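Service request form, structural biology core

Requester: graduate student, group of Dr. S.
Request type: structure prediction, single chain
Budget code: on file
Notes: please return the result as structure tokens.

Sequence provided:
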Amino acid sequence: MGTVYVAGRNNHRVMRWYKDSKSGSVIIGGQGWGNGTAQLCTPRDLAFDRQGN
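Core staff response, request fulfilled:
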């Protein structure tokens, strides 16, 4: 398995873990619930295209 992405519904953020890493990093959100810059509102799903975008 390669990189893992997790939508943290209750933490209002998306995290990324690279293969063999000990910790993940916030790639979007993490500033609480809302519609402002760097805020998400209960993310549930992630979608990627064939290029991994």
